[in-house]
Amino acid sequence: MPPIDTRSIALIGLRGTGKTTVAQLLALRTGWDWVDADVEVELSAGKSIAAIFADDGEAAFRDLEAKVVSELCRRSQAILALGGGAVLRKENRDCLAGCQAVVWLKATPETLAGRLETDSTTAERRPNLTNHGGRTEIEVLLDQRDPIYRGCATLEVDTEEKQPAEIADEIYVALVG
Ligand SMILES: Nc1ncnc2c1ncn2[C@@H]1O[C@H](COP(=O)(O)OP(=O)(O)OP(=O)(O)O)[C@@H](O)[C@H]1O
Ligand SMILES: O=C(O)C1=C[C@@H](O)[C@@H](O)[C@H](O)C1
Ligand SMILES: [Mg+2]
C-alpha cells in the first residue's frame, strides 16, 4: 500500500551507507518512483562526478548539486537518494525540511570502506574529498558531518549487518506502518 502522505522521502548519509541501493527497494515497496541526485548531476553536466571535480572543482559540483536537490525536493511520491554531501549547504537542508521524512542511513567507517572499495561506481562517482582517501577520509567526514546529518534526520537507521531489503522494510514499517 502506498503511503498516505504523498510528500517525498529522502535518504541521507555518508558514501556507501546504501542510499542508492535502498532507494530502489523502497520505491518497489511503496510503488513510488526513485531518483538519484548524483545521476541527475551527471546528466545535467554531461560528465561523471569525477570529471566535474577534476575539470571544474568541488564548488562547481556543489552548485550543480544544489540545483538538483531543489528540483528533486519539489517532487511528490518519490524516494530521493541524495549524494553524501547534499546536507552541507543550508539551502539544501531547507529544501529537505519539506519532505515527509529524511532518513539517515548509518554504518561504521570500516564497513563503509569495505563497501566502497568493491563498488564499481566508486572511480566515477567518488573522487577524494580530503587529502586522505580511504578509511581515514571516511572518519574525517563522519566527524564533520555527523551533527549535520543528525540535525536533518527525522529517522535514523543503522545499516550494519543488514541486507538492503531488510533496511527498506524497516523504513517502510517505520514510516507507513
Ligand atoms: N546494507 C548493505 N549491506 C551490504 N552492502 C551494501 C549495503 N548497502 C549498500 N551496499 C553496497 O555498498 C555499495 C555502495 O552502496 P550505494 O551506492 O547504495 O551507497 P550510497 O549511499 O548511495 O553512496 P553515495 O553517497 O556515494 O552515492 C554498493 O556496492 C552496494 O551494493
Ligand atoms: O560525500 C560526498 O560529499 C559525496 C558523495 C557522493 O554521493 C557524490 O555526491 C560525491 O562524490 C560527493
Ligand atoms: Mg548513491
From TrEMBL:
Mg(2+) binds at T20. ATP binds at G16, T17, G18, K19, T20, T21, R126. Its main location: cytoplasm. This is Shikimate kinase. Keywords: Amino-acid biosynthesis, Aromatic amino acid biosynthesis, ATP-binding, Cytoplasm, Kinase, Magnesium, Metal-binding, Nucleotide-binding, Transferase. GO terms for cellular component: cytosol. CDD domains: SK. It comes from Bythopirellula goksoeyrii. Pathway: Metabolic intermediate biosynthesis; chorismate biosynthesis; chorismate from D-erythrose 4-phosphate and phosphoenolpyruvate: step 5/7. Monomer.
